[in-house]
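FIELD: query
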Amino acid sequence: MLHYENNQNKLITRLVLPTRQGGWETIGVREMKQGTPMEKTPIDPFCPHGDVDQVACINNWMQFAELADHYIRSGDTLVAAALADHMLLDVHVQPACFLYRHGLELNLKDLAWKSQYLVTGKKRFAEKNWKELGQHRLIDIWDGAKIASKTVLRADFPLDSSKEKKLRSFLTQIEEHDPDSYSFRYPISKKKGRTHPKLNNVNLATLKAEVHNAFDQIKGILDMIDYCLSSER
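FIELD: result
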């Protein structure tokens, strides 16, 4: 939560997060003089300056799932703009595909390391050889996360075989066109060929709906894993 206060013509912005004890903890403070005009000389965009309404806060305490949600919401913004102005359909399609894919990847990785931690007692994401953090193939991450999650949740695992099959099918569709989180970021592949020789069209409305369905299903499992983690602390 952002908290604003005025103090001697300065706007003080505080990034405040809830604590486990039910209180609030300030983890970032920024001061800015109100009404300060933009400087004419080049300035660092990664430092606060100018209009406070144009300055964003970076949260360095986010978990994978929270950042995943931000990528998904950013993809939604591009899709909404493209559907409102059809001149933007071909402009936003590849950035939106990348944002959606990366959001799903981060959510899967959050599920993978947490579920495996509950099974093994090891925080493998902190080890140099933790494979799930360095890999990008959605099916591989999902397979590891699913096995560990089923081991933890057992009969409470929320997806039946039909939903599992549909989720895997959609992740496979993404991997068919972007197996290594590379194809929607570059116009050519590592082998110097075109990144999408077999892809010509994307229905953005359908893509958004399918991404949210997959994201919600993964998030549902992750919420249960998070509860198990909180019960162990």
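FIELD: remark
Residues 13 and 106 are 29 Å apart (CA to CA).
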